[in-house]
């Protein structure tokens, strides 16, 4: 089953002062990312504040992004919290040039029996015409067990947990893995993961792409040094529990204001300066 590999960006979503989506800033950011060698863009994920967007907003934005013809893979995230809205948005994606659709199981009811998670995905698969990726992010949502992934006719899973054995179990079941966290990315790419979805690629797409290519070329020394720089930057982003940090850092690099976040997330302080964090990771603004 074909699907996306390589470096994908967990794209942030800019909101204006009235908390509406700033579409012009969004498209500017996506074009900048596409121009820096990434293979694809993941829309409306965790760092893209997907749960803060309405279904209608997502559908409208998908059409605008598709019409922009960015020349990279597009992976919409469907994280609607219930089956009917999930099916509706997946159906809306069917008519758009998505490479795959990343689907999160409804996340309110925890714990959930794996049989229920499997039933959910089978109903989604009956509607979807694009390859499907399960979204495994147990920190925020219902986990997707590896045995469920391998029983389903999905392309694979976005693994945002990095639990011991999970990657191996999915790969052994002939399903693919996109890594959803930068921690240990060099080692786990070396174990066979097909690609990665990086939040930090919003800020340093060139660094992430170079790291990925170094791993594929077998240049472990270069890859390890790039990972060290990447994790230094990641540490600095954790100073505030908000994707607003990534927006400010991205704005410092490409010059376009990336706006604010939607409540209940809290914006970073107005006087926050992203340059020291960028410089600590060896990145020029």
Summarize the structure.
The chain is an alpha/beta fold. The chain has eleven helices and eight strands. The protein has a single domain, classed as Aldolase class I (TIM Barrel).
Number of DSSP-assigned strands: 8
CATH classification class: Alpha Beta
* CATH-scheme architecture: Alpha-Beta Barrel
Strand content: 5-15%
The global form is globular
Q: What is the CA-based Rg, rounded?
A: 18 Å
Main sheet, how many strands, which sense, barrel?
A: 8 strands, parallel, barrel
* Tally of distinct domains: 1
End-to-end Cα distance:
40 Å
Helical fraction: 40-55%
Mean pLDDT: 95
**Annotation field: number of helices:** 11
Strand order in space, largest sheet: 1-2-3-4-5-6-7-8
Regions with little confidence, pLDDT below 50 for 5+ residues: none
Secondary-structure-derived class = alpha/beta
What is the H-and-E element order? EHEHEHEHEHEHEHEHHHH
The H-level CATH homologous superfamily, spelled out, is Aldolase class I
| CATH fold-level label | TIM Barrel
What do these coordinates show?
It is built from 11 helices and 8 strands. It has 285 residues and is an alpha/beta fold. It has one domain (6-219): Aldolase class I (TIM Barrel), CATH 3.20.20. The longest helix is centred in the last third of the chain and has 18 residues, at 220-237. It starts with 5 loop residues before the first strand and ends in a 5-residue tail after the last helix.
């Amino acid at each position: 089953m074909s699907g996306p590999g390589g470096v994908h960006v967990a794209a942030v979503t800019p909101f204006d002062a009235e908390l509406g989506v700033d579409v012009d800033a969004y498209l500017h950011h996506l074009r900048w990312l596409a121009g820096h060698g990434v293979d694809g863009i993941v829309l409306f994920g965790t760092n893209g504040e997907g749960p803060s967007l309405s279904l209608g907003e997502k559908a409208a934005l998908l059409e605008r992004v598709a019409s922009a013809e960015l020349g990279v893979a597009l992976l919409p995230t469907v994280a609607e919290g219930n089956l009917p809205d999930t099916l509706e948005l997946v159906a809306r994606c069917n008519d758009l040039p998505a490479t795959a659709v990343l689907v999160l199981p409804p996340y309110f009811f925890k714990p959930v029996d794996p049989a229920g998670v499997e039933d959910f995905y089978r109903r989604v698969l009956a509607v979807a015409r694009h390859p499907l990726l399960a979204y495994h992010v147990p920190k925020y949502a219902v986990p997707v067990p590896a045995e469920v992934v391998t029983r389903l006719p999905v392309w694979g899973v976005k693994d945002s947990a990095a639990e011991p054995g999970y990657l191996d179990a999915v790969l052994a079941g002939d399903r693919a893995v996109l890594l959803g966290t930068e921690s240990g990315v060099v080692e786990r790419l070396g174990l066979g993961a097909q690609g990665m979805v990086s939040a930090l690629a919003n800020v340093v797409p060139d660094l992430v792409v170079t790291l990925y290519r170094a791993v594929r070329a077998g240049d472990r020394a270069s890859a390890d040094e790039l990972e060290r720089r990447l994790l230094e930057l990641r540490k600095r982003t954790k100073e505030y529990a908000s994707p607003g940090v990534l927006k400010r850092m991205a704005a410092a690099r490409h010059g376009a204001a990336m706006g604010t976040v939607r409540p209940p997330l809290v914006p970073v302080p107005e006087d926050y300066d992203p340059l020291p964090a960028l410089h600590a990771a060896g990145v020029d603004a």
